[in-house]
Amino acid sequence: MYRNIKRILDILFSAILLVLGAIPLLIVALIIKIDSPGEALFKQERLGLNGKTFKIYKFRSMCVGAEKKGSGVYSGKNDARVTRVGKIIRATSIDELPQLINIFKGEMSFIGPRPTLTYHPWKLEEYTDFQKRRFEVRPGVTGLAQINGRKDIPWDRRIEYDVDYVNNMSFGLDFKILLKTIVKVFTMSDNVNTFETAKNKNS
């Protein structure tokens, strides 16, 4: 029952925010293009509901072709690949705002496990049966793992949080995650990779 209500709320609030934020979003996109060459939007394949792939949208915060340079998928403090504007939109999580489009389209939700790359931390077929439960709900802009450490915890623990969310999903839990996320955004905490997260699969 709550899953249906959750989807309705996702559609409603993403539509409202896209309409109200249209001009600010366009301004951010323009500033990004002025700051560095390349498209304002960054698109990347991620694993979503039931393990199906979709393209996630973000404001581009790194130079074009960044994954082929430096430390690959990891971006730590003072990463030279991050643009001047990119540092600001990452610190404030503004780079995540285009995911409102993903939410409206039904590929994501406001709250849920963060959508993983198709190849990182490992390929879909390499997840254990326990870990695959994280794909039973739509991925989110923020989730239980993000309010409990975000980039400071290894992948096996992140996925345990994701499965906990699947098992206990409710309006109350979503509201709690939303409030804690707002605090983290305003304090700009846990938004930089501090180490190459572990790939322990003993869950």
UniProtKB/TrEMBL annotation:
InterPro entries: Bact_transf (IPR003362). Pfam families: Bac_transf. Residues 6-186 form the Bacterial sugar transferase domain. The keyword Transmembrane helix applies. The chain crosses the membrane at residues 12-32. One of its GO terms (molecular function) is transferase activity. Keywords: Membrane, Transferase, Transmembrane, Transmembrane helix. Belongs to the bacterial sugar transferase family. PANTHER family: COLANIC BIOSYNTHESIS UDP-GLUCOSE LIPID CARRIER TRANSFERASE (PTHR30576), UNDECAPRENYL-PHOSPHATE N-ACETYLGALACTOSAMINYL 1-PHOSPHATE TRANSFERASE-RELATED (PTHR30576:SF0). This is Sugar transferase. It comes from Intestinibacter bartlettii. The lineage of its organism: Bacteria, Bacillati, Bacillota, Clostridia, Peptostreptococcales.
